[in-house]
Structures are given as structure tokens and as C-alpha cells.
Amino acid sequence: MIHWDSALTIIGMGITTYLTRIGGYLLLGGKRLSPRATAMMDIIPGCVLISVLAPSFASGRPTDLAGLAITVFAATRWALLPTMAIGIVSTGVLRAVFP
Fold first, then answer.
1. DSSP letters along the chain, please?
2. pTM
3. CA distances from 41 to 16, 44, 56, 82 (A)
4. CA-CA distances (angstroms) from residue 60 to 50, 72, 77, 85, 94?
5. Which of 9, 56, 85, 97 has the fewest other C-beta atoms within 10 Å?
């Protein structure tokens, strides 16, 4: 059974995610962005991903570094979503095989 604090945390994260998405739409929905601003908006998902993953890879564990190498290689070949999936799966498999 799920604990109340866990359920409230999940609900809070969902509300926060929704508010940030709808807030961006409401603030920028009718505006025309410059090419520079558009380019910046295009790279934000990758920047957020890096900021979440970087501390794990700075640990110096060989499995994490190998997972990072696989992810970087995948990033040179595929789009963001397949690259994320490859990075998550490869790092998980490496951690399971080489504890």
C-alpha cells in the first residue's frame, strides 16, 4: 500500500509539472520568438537532462562512465528520446551485471 506522504509527493510533482507547462504556454503562446530564443528553447530539454544525470556520472564508478560513453555515442546517431532510452537501459544493465 502506498503511503500518504508518497502519494502527496507524486501529486505535488504532477501539479508542478502541469503548472510549468501551462505557464510557459500562457506566457509565450501568442508571442513571436527570435531565432536565438527559439534555439535556446529547443536545447532546454537536453540541458535539464544533463543537470539531472551529471552528478551520477561524476561519481567515478566505471559502470556509470561506460553508460555515459554509450549514451554519448547514441547521441551522435539518434534523437533525444531513443538516446535517453539507450542511456538508461545500458547504465541499468551495466550496474546489474557489474555491481
1. ---HHHHHHHHHHHHHHHHHHHHHHHHHTTPPPPHHHHHHHHHHHHHHHHHHHHHHHTT--HHHHHHHHHHHHHHTTS-HHHHHHHHHHHHHHHHHH--
2. 0.54
3. 19, 5, 25, 20
4. 16, 16, 25, 22, 14
5. 97
Which residues, 6 or more positions from 72, have their beta carbon under 8 angstroms from its beta carbon? none
Residues ≥6 apart with Cβ < 8 Å to 75: 83
pLDDT digits (tens, 9 = 90+) for 39-91: 887 887 777 777 777 777 777 889 988 988 998 899 899 998 898 899 889 98
* Cell numbers representing residue 24 in the block: 510557459
Exposure on the CB side of residue 17, measured as CA atoms within 13 A: 6
